[in-house]
From TrEMBL:
GO terms for biological process: germ cell development. This is Dead end protein homolog 1. It comes from the Eukaryota. It is found in: Cytoplasm; Nucleus. Keywords: Cytoplasm, Developmental protein, Nucleus, Repeat, RNA-binding.
Amino acid sequence: MVGLEELQGLFQPSINQTNKMALLAWAKETCTDLVQINGQRRYGGPPPGWVGDPPPAGTEVFIGKLPQDMYENVLIPLFQSVGRLYEFRLMMTFSGLNRGFAYAKYSSRRGAKEAIAAFNNFEVREGCAIVVCKSTEKCELSVDGLAASVSQRELEALLRQVTAGLHSVTLCASPCQKRAQLAVLKYSSHQAAAMAKKTLMEGNSVEMRVAWLNPDLKQKLQLCKEKPSSSRVQGGKSLGGPKQAPLSPALCNALDRLNALCQKQYLGTPLFLTRCVQANPNGWLRFWCRVVIPGCPMPFSGFTWVRQDGQGRSGHEEAKAAVALQVLRMLGEPSHGVTASPLPFPKSWSISWECEAVMLFLSAAGCQL
């Protein structure tokens, strides 16, 4: 919630003082709570006294061509005059001006229709007519560049931990990248999809592209179905994906043992996330790693050093194997002589691990599933 002092601090001295003070006075008199986050100032969602689920799709309108020094003290009463508002979002600049557009979500589709009929081309000031039309509530995202080994079940389990409101996940062969997959993510609302998009895009590399689902692409993917289970990940290996050079017997054994342990305990298939954060001239690579085991309440995460051996094995695959060995140790499983490659630093520096009750993320430079 933005208090009066905080609200006042959002304005630069050059902002129209009359309009600024009018907003502050209105917020105080009406006890209106305004929340500013991610470049927008929001009222409601839900408003005070709201009972039940959010309004259905088709209840939001887009408001454009707003004067940049016009605020909620004028806009909310105006748009409330034709129907009950569930939410009002005014897009803001860092200087305290609005960005010229806003969104008003009504409690019913009728309210949205009334707003369009009443306020499209309405002059909020002399010579300043605004645009009001139906909002395109995008609810679907495309995530391109996923590894061929990723399964729908594992991806969905991971996404439900990092985003809210996920409705469905569909996996298809990527139309743009060879040996890669494209995921279509459908969310319960535009806001849920927008927040998911922001989460997935933060720190993302060019290898994985997150965007609103393009209508043309959606049409091309209509007949797309999830890949058969024979190509899904099993213990860190893909049964149907491109072939890679085999891991060393010791490291491969660590992956197999972790997978077997999880199956024995009915914990689900482990999902590995790896990101290369440092590369040394001598060939050593430092990886940030996270292991998500569906049946465990918290993920395992930390750092490890690996070295590519020149036999065609991916550094990510080597990191997964080293991580599997460490997780086995953390779970109390004896190593039985299984060790990873010698490290470039003292052993105490090699891997630092911690169990975290924090959100996972997919988007990271060089992140692979």
